[in-house]
């Protein structure tokens, strides 16, 4: 059995996504003013997206606890992650991040979130189909 085919793979990825979302949310809310200066991004954007990440992390954790994992819920997370990647790229290409560190932050977020979306999608494709999940 491959790692992705393991019944524990998708819940583990969801827990990792929840933890990453929570950690990023805490960082953006707690250190918003400092991050805004360092990254050249608006403090309001950092704080608002940090708060949104709390809800996202709670949803990912709730999905990770489900048996079976909700396919529709995971598809929603994948779509949200892809929207996050597109948002990061938009900020990057419109010059919203005024500092090189801000540009690196956006690229790092896009790569990490894109990787999580890909892992969630791969896990979802290998997960057994059930009637109501």
Describe the protein in words:
- The protein is an all-alpha fold and 133 residues long.
- The protein has one domain (9-126).
- The protein has five helices and no strands.
- The protein has helices spanning 9-30, 32-39, 43-65, 71-93, 100-126.
- α1 packs antiparallel against α3 (43-65), α2 (32-39) crosses α3 and α4 (71-93) packs antiparallel against α5.
Number of strands: 0
Mean pLDDT score: 91
The run of helices and strands is HHHHH
Would you identify the regions where 5 or more consecutive residues have pLDDT less than 50?
A: none
| Class by alpha and beta content | mainly alpha
Largest sheet: none
Number of helices: 5
* Residues in β-strands, percent: under 5%
In short:
This protein is mainly α and 133 residues long.
Topology:
Elements: H1 9-30, H2 32-39, H3 43-65, H4 71-93, H5 100-126
Helix pairs in contact: 1-3, 1-5, 2-3, 4-5
Key terms for this structure?
133 residues; 77% helix
């Amino acid at each position: 059995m491959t790692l992705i085919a393991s019944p524990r793979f998708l819940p583990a990825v969801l827990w990792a996504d929840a933890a990453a979302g929570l950690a990023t949310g805490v960082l953006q809310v707690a250190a918003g003013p400092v991050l805004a200066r360092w990254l050249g991004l608006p403090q309001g954007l950092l704080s608002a997206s940090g708060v949104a990440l709390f809800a996202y992390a709670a949803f990912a954790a709730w999905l990770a606890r489900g048996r079976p994992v909700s396919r529709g819920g995971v598809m929603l997370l994948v779509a949200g992650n892809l929207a996050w990647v597109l948002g990061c790229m938009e900020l990057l290409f419109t010059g919203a991040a005024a500092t090189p560190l801000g540009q690196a932050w956006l690229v790092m977020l896009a790569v990490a979130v894109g990787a999580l979306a890909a892992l969630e999608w791969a896990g979802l494709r290998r997960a057994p189909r059930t009637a109501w999940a």
